[in-house]
């Protein structure tokens, strides 16, 4: 639901005449995100949100392994376990 709020806020601010840079600063999100959201109709945005919720992520196969590492080494932050 949060993404819908951001989408709505972007559209309202643009309609009020705010520049992309001003919207970016006000909402603390990248200009690329603003351009991406602005180029979508509400129907396209809804489809995009649902698609992003169901697609698999690159690290999904390693989910349990990473959780195991983090539980085993609670004194270290997660960025210490970067693979590669």
Model description:
Residues 5-70 form the HTH IS21-type domain. This is Transposase A of IS643. One of its GO terms (molecular function) is DNA binding. The chain contains five helices and no strands. The protein has 84 residues and is mainly alpha-helical. The chain has one domain (3-70): Orthogonal Bundle (Arc Repressor Mutant, subunit A). The protein is elongated. The protein starts with a helix and ends in a 12-residue tail after the last helix.
- End-to-end Cα distance, whole Å, is 34 Å
CATH architecture annotation? Orthogonal Bundle
Please summarize the sheet with the most strands. none
Q: If you compute it from the alpha carbons, what radius of gyration comes out, rounded to the nearest whole angstrom?
A: 18 Å
Summarize the structure.
This protein is mostly helical and 84 residues long.
Spell out the blueprint of helices and strands.
Blueprint lengths: L1 H14 L4 H8 L3 H8 L3 H13 L8 H10 L12
InterPro entries: Homeodomain-like_sf, HTH_IS21_transposase_type, Resolvase_HTH_dom
Protein name: Transposase A of IS643
Pfam families: HTH_7
